[in-house]
Amino acid sequence: MTRDPATAAASRQPPTMRDVAAHAGVSPMTVSRTLRDEPSVDRVLRERVLAAVEELGYRRNDWARGLRGGGATGLLGLVITNLGNPFYSQLATGVEAVAAEAGLQLLVGTSADDVARERGLVAGLVSRRVEGLVVVPAGTDQGHLAGSSLHGVPVVLATSPASGLAADAVVVDDFGGAREASRRLFLEGHRRIAFLGLSHETWTGQERRRGFTAGLAECGLEVDPELVVTTPAGDHDADTTLWRLMSAPRPPTAVFAANHRGTLAACRWVRSTGERLRIIGFDDIATAPLFAMPVSLVGYSPAELGRRAAELLLERVRGDVDDEPRRVVVATQLSHHGHVDVPA
Amino acid sequence: MTRDPATAAASRQPPTMRDVAAHAGVSPMTVSRTLRDEPSVDRVLRERVLAAVEELGYRRNDWARGLRGGGATGLLGLVITNLGNPFYSQLATGVEAVAAEAGLQLLVGTSADDVARERGLVAGLVSRRVEGLVVVPAGTDQGHLAGSSLHGVPVVLATSPASGLAADAVVVDDFGGAREASRRLFLEGHRRIAFLGLSHETWTGQERRRGFTAGLAECGLEVDPELVVTTPAGDHDADTTLWRLMSAPRPPTAVFAANHRGTLAACRWVRSTGERLRIIGFDDIATAPLFAMPVSLVGYSPAELGRRAAELLLERVRGDVDDEPRRVVVATQLSHHGHVDVPA
């Protein structure tokens, strides 16, 4: 909601960027761009903005101050699925770094991949009047995060785009990273390539599977449904899946694992059998250079994911952007550990 | 401070466990033990407690209700040194599990091993009226956590005991785990055994070094000061330390690393040289079974550390214990990965 500038002046509250935008008849984004001296701003709009800034006595520092004043709690909420998973704890580190820089304190809750728990956590954080929320969603639908349930608290999703609501999201290039991996395996000469999927269907899991299939399709190879399996939670169950897959009449010569759980299960199979199996996995593993078997990994920075999400959120909290939901995609890199045959 | 039971009755507040204790002339701990039906309570004291419970109309459920009522914020504060380090994120998971069970929300901040930042975070959390604090201290003195600075907010330290204040603490058996490791290396026949220490002196680092030295002293071996080094942060600098150590005229045949940073540096040295070096390290490494080289690890459960710390804290918040500071020690286990020669 935009306050009337005259009302703002009367109540002696410092004018906000939204007041400037309303006064100049432009979007808050245009005000922001003008104040950052971005060359993309139309000259006429630019002059209208600067005139409004002068008339209202707007000062840029008021943004940050506005965050803390007027009943602001100085709290940001973060809901992740599991703090014990290094990806989410590194993501939390990125969110916390940006929050700390802005003088905000982080309220953290974990949903344990349970949508009902996520709902309860979000409601609890909103009732504590957090100024914004970063959510790593547990399920595939986030309708319960829609504006009305949040009483206007802005939300940014991390790792998965918004489904069932209009919200900013920061995601990994899951499709592109998986596509690169499967193409790579084809180019190395593999034709029996297995896909080790996530045990519960998430947007991330779907994208990685789509990317895997698309990469092979570009090479003219169709995916054999017998080679598509999911890796259950728990080392023992994951190992059983690998043994079953590798004991089939026509076992794969290579696997692409959609997350580190599958990668580690494949590595354990190699370790205990001494057999050859080419492995590429999604997600970095810090100790992979010390592994007894070669492995390639599709990596990205979870901390960057968290930083970007917190940055988008702070822009929302400051009312510094249009309503249009934004999506930021974090790139992946394929790295090789141990001696991997390079395709000719 | 113990409220007078008569005053409590007059003000119509439900009596607390402390009121019962004062009325019966026993410690709150004795009240707690009696209500839990623990057999260790003296029969006479037990009857006095039960009489006081009846006279005051004390009900056990009031504890939990007391947590949420009377201006209680329902917030617990957690200050850790680094959320990106898997040990601290697992510790946080343990704290969060206990907090969530009690209906409390966790406020998390990271000090980046900086005492000044820790001070600021603690002051910020106290000003947000957290009901209690779990702190993984950054430095060796915690005088700034003394009661007066915290306005009575109870604090429990994790990983290191309180120094400069009287507070509960949950620590790992750093001394015992290191002592077991160095004795083991001696019994395997090693006489040139290096110690890879932490780069900054913490209580944990001191205890692990004391345990290492004590274990060897019991075997009649004195530590050669040339074999005692510290492992700097950053893989490159840690690797340089290892190369220097191993290039000495009389290099060690075994190393004990006081944390996973030193363990990984030693493993990288073995990986890149192909030389033999017996390695035992403090701290579990989940992927160690996949390593190309044998390694033994002194492990413990960081999540248990967090759970125990949160449990002690909730007892303090509920006024359910004596003032005497308590210390809980979490045990370690030595595990072996890869083929390690067993001493005869």
TrEMBL record, chains A, B:
Gene3D superfamilies: 3.40.50.2300, lambda repressor-like DNA-binding domains
Keywords: DNA-binding, Transcription, Transcription regulation
Keyword flag Transcription regulation: yes
GO molecular function: DNA-binding transcription factor activity; transcription cis-regulatory region binding
InterPro entries, sorted: HTH_LacI, LacI/GalR-like_sensor, Lambda_DNA-bd_dom_sf, Peripla_BP_I
Domain of life: Bacteria
Region (Disordered): 1-25
Domain HTH lacI-type: 15-69
SMART domains per the UniProt record, alphabetical: HTH_LACI
PROSITE patterns: HTH_LACI_2
Name assigned to this protein: Transcriptional regulator, LacI family
Annotated source species: Auraticoccus monumenti
